[in-house]
Specification:
This protein is of the alpha/beta class. The protein contains 12 helices and 11 strands. It has helices at 16-23, 28-36, 54-73, 78-89, 93-101, 118-129, 143-156, 183-202, 204-212, 244-251, 278-285, 306-324; strands spanning 6-12, 40-44, 47-53, 105-106, 112-113, 132-136, 162-167, 216-220, 232-236, 259-264, 292-296. The strands form 3 sheets. A 6-stranded parallel beta sheet has the order 8-7-9-10-6-11. A 3-stranded antiparallel beta sheet has the order 1-3-2. Helix 10 (244-251) links the parallel strand 9 (232-236) and strand 10. Helix 7 packs across helix 8. The protein is globular and about 70 Å long. The mean pLDDT is 87.
Length: 327
């Protein structure tokens, strides 16, 4: 590195545990940043010294400040670091600051839930500002979890009186009537992801209390027929597996003072061959309807293990190549 015009900036952390989360195992996060900027990062106990050209040092210091809240919460991972590096290299520091400042809700354990990508922030803002929001994208992009987080935040702010979560109970060719056990045993495997999100945000006791008072309802889509839901926050998950008729039925359940979020992945349709997905049809029918937002999340918004991003990209390449071969 050219030493002319070199400057240094020192970032002091609260303790060694915070430093470990920010720096990464064996300083892996710092090394990833060094590879992308003309700086040297030296960790000294619970502080890091950033050395390099003034502009680069300022950019990296701002980047570290963005990563710090996640480090303090113990949630920072290599995907977060890589995504923040990309935004910083593009000069999109404003997006970094906006992500850092938008807490959707704090869980019962004290963990702040925030959008972790520009796409996720756009999704959260769409939910807040529209009567119906469609969140479409691959697995791991936070579609369901963020929708549940915004729903709980709306309930706590008294913007709705009830949360209703639903999904079609037909996947991979299975139908409820052919499954063993009573109703609860039949539907619980389909609704498990919704329960998991609520448990994580509210805790089991608070969730069961609200469920017992019918302030949270988790049910198969078939149970929405014939109802009108007023003052509710309604989430339809796995919407790619709705039929066109089911989707229309769901969307017309929306009552006064209600909001709805529809999530799905149009590449993972489990409907019988030849049956049109209600989500796919809704994209065409409702594209220009005022008050409805469509947000498309991509592999860049994946917040699961970094391998999930690679898997999604590999399948996308495979589909493109297969399509190019006419098959």
């Amino acid at each position: 590195m050219d030493t002319s015009g070199v400057t240094s900036e020192r970032l002091r952390l609260n303790d060694s545990q915070e430093a470990l989360h920010l720096f990464g195992q064996n300083d892996a996060h710092l090394r990833a940043i060094e590879e992308q900027f003309q700086v040297r990062l030296q960790s000294r106990g619970s502080e890091v010294v950033v050395t390099g050209p003034e502009e680069e040092v300022a950019r990296v210091t701002q980047l570290l400040h963005h990563l710090l809240p996640m480090a303090r919460e113990g949630t920072l991972d290599s995907h977060d670091v890589a995504y923040a590096i990309r935004l910083a290299r593009e000069g999109n520091e404003g997006a970094l600051a906006a992500l850092r400042g938008d807490t959707v809700i704090t869980t019962y354990r004290g963990k702040a839930i925030r959008p972790k990508s520009v796409g996720q922030k756009k999704y959260v803002e769409a939910i807040r500002n529209h009567g119906i929001t469609f969140g479409i994208g691959p697995a791991g992009t936070g579609k369901t979890y963020l929708a549940v987080a915004v729903a709980v935040a709306a309930y706590k702010a008294k913007e709705c009186t009830r949360i209703v979560l639903t999904r079609p109970a037909v996947e991979a060719g299975e139908k409820l009537g052919f499954l063993p056990g009573g109703l609860a045993e039949k539907v619980n495997p389909y609704l498990r992801p919704l329960y998991d999100a609520l448990f994580d945000i509210l805790g089991v006791e608070a969730f069961e209390r609200l469920l017992g008072r019918n302030l949270i309802e988790v049910a198969p889509l078939a149970y929405m027929r014939g109802r009108t839901l007023d003052d509710s926050f309604i989430i339809l998950d796995e919407a790619q597996n709705t039929t066109a008729e089911q989707m229309k039925m769901f969307l017309t359940r929306l009552g006064l003072g209600s909001r709805a979020v529809v999530t799905g992945d149009i590449t993972q349709v489990d409907l019988p061959k030849g049956q049109v997905s209600g989500l796919e049809e809704a994209r065409r029918v409702l594209a220009d309807v005022e008050g409805i937002a469509f947000v498309y999340l991509t592999e860049e918004d994946v917040v699961r293990h970094e391998l999930v991003t690679r898997i999604i990209k590999a399948y996308e390449r495979w589909d493109r190549e297969k399509g190019g071969q006419g098959g």
